[in-house]
C-alpha cells in the first residue's frame, strides 16, 4: 500500500503573471526605442549624405533589428510564463478536486496530504472476510487521487 499523497503545489501563478506583466511593459519601451531608431534613420536621409551617413544608417538599422529580435524573444518568454501560470492553476484545481474526492470517500486529509485508507482487519479484498464496500471505495479514491 502506498504512503500518504501530498497534494501541495509549491509554485505561485501570481509571480509568473506579475513577471509576464512586467515583461509586457518592458516590450512597450523596446518598441518605442525601435520606432524612434527607425524614424531617425529615415529622417537622416533628407539632410545627411556620404559614407559616414550610410555607415550610421547601417548601424541604426542593425540596432533596430536587434530591438525587434529582443521584442520577439521577450514576448515568447512572456507567453510561456502566462501558459505556465495557467498550468499551475490547473494543477491546483486538480489537487483540490483530489482532496475533495478523497474526503468524500471517507479518507483522512491532513492539510494537503491524503492519508491512505487503513488496512482492513477482515483480510484481503475479494474474500468473504475482505474489506467492506466503504473500504474498497476509500482505496479506489486514494488510488485515483494519486
Main sheet: strands, sense, barrel: 3 strands, antiparallel
- Helices and strands, in N-to-C order? EHHEEH
C-alpha Rg (nearest Å): 30 Å
Which overall shape is indicated by the principal axes computed on the Cα atoms? rod-shaped
Q: What gap, in angstroms, lies between the N and C termini?
A: 12 Å
Strand content: under 5%
Helical stretch tally = 3
In spatial order, strands of the major sheet run 1-3-2
Protein structure class: mainly alpha
Give a count of the beta strands, DSSP E runs of length 2 or more: 3
Unreliable residue runs: none
Q: What is the residue-averaged pLDDT?
A: 88
Indicate the percent of residues in helices.
55-70%
Please tell me about this protein's structure.
Helix 1 (13-44) packs antiparallel against helix 2 and helix 2 packs antiparallel against helix 3. Strands 1-3-2 form a three-stranded antiparallel β-sheet. The protein is 68% helix and 4% strand. The protein has helices at 13-44, 51-104, 133-145; strands spanning 5-6, 109-110, 113-114. It has 146 residues and is mainly alpha-helical. Strand 2 (109-110) and strand 3 (113-114) form a beta hairpin.
Amino acid at each position: 500500500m502506498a504512503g500518504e499523497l501530498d497534494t501541495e503545489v509549491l509554485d505561485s501563478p501570481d509571480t509568473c503573471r506579475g513577471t509576464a506583466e512586467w515583461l509586457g511593459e518592458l516590450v512597450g519601451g523596446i518598441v518605442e526605442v525601435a520606432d524612434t531608431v527607425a524614424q531617425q534613420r529615415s529622417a537622416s536621409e533628407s539632410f545627411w549624405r556620404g559614407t559616414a551617413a550610410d555607415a550610421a544608417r547601417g548601424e541604426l538599422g542593425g540596432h533596430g533589428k536587434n530591438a525587434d529580435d529582443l521584442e520577439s524573444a521577450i514576448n515568447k518568454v512572456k507567453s510561456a510564463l502566462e501558459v505556465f501560470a495557467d498550468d499551475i492553476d490547473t494543477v491546483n484545481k486538480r489537487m483540490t478536486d483530489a482532496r475533495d474526492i478523497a474526503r468524500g470517500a471517507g479518507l483522512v486529509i491532513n492539510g494537503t496530504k491524503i492519508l491512505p485508507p487503513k488496512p482492513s482487519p477482515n483480510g484481503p479484498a475479494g474474500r468473504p472476510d475482505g474489506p467492506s464496500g466503504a473500504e474498497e471505495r476509500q482505496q479506489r479514491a486514494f488510488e485515483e487521487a494519486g
